[in-house]
C-alpha cells in the first residue's frame, strides 16, 4: 500500500502571508494538528504544528501577541516530504526516525496531500488482516 492510497487530499494549507491566527483557526476548524505552508506552485516551504506554536507561547507567555505574525516563521522550514508512491511502512519509519507527526506527500513536485502517523498505523493494521483472515463467528 502506498501513501497515495491513504493520504488526506483535501487539506487546508497556509501561505507565507498566513498569520498565527489563521493557522490556529484552520487547525481548529479542520481538526488537523499541523498545516503545510505552500508557495505559489503548491510546494511545501514549511510545516507549522500545534506543538511549534505552543513552544513559542511557553517562552513568550502570550499567544495574542503573536496572532498577527506570519505563522511560517514558527514552523519547520524546508519540511521532509515523500513521493505519493512511497510504501506506507517506509514512510512510517521515516516519520518515527525523524520525530515527524505530519508528512507532506508530493506528486509531480506539488503537494498532493498529507499523512499523519495515525493514518499510517491504521493502514498497516488494516493491510495486515486480509479478508480471509477475518475473525469467524463462533457457533
Quick overview of this protein structure:
The two termini are 34 Å apart. The protein has 139 residues and is an alpha/beta fold.
Q: How would you characterize this protein structure?
A:
This protein is of the alpha/beta class and 139 residues long. The protein has helices at residues 3-6, 20-30, 50-60, 88-98, 117-127; strands at 13-14, 34-38, 44-49, 76-77, 82-83, 102-107, 110-116. The strands form 2 sheets. Strands 1-2-3-4 form a 4-stranded mixed β-sheet. A 3-stranded mixed β-sheet has the order 5-6-7. A hairpin with a 5-residue loop joins strand 2 (34-38) and strand 3. It is globular. The protein starts with a helix and ends in a 12-residue tail after the last helix.
Note the topology.
Blueprint: H1 3-6, E1 13-14, H2 20-30, E2 34-38, E3 44-49, H3 50-60, E4 76-77, E5 82-83, H4 88-98, E6 102-107, E7 110-116, H5 117-127
Parallel strand pairs: 1-2, 5-6
Antiparallel strand pairs: 2-3, 3-4, 6-7
Helix pairs in contact: 4-5
Estimate the helix proportion, in percent: 25-40%
What does the main sheet amount to? 4 strands, mixed
**Number of DSSP strand runs:** 7
Strand order of the largest sheet: 1-2-3-4
Shape: globular
Q: β content, as a range?
A: 15-25%
- Computed structural class: alpha/beta
Q: Report how far the terminal alpha carbons are from each other.
A: 34 Å
Which terms summarize this structure?
139 residues, alpha/beta, 4-stranded mixed sheet, 3-stranded mixed sheet
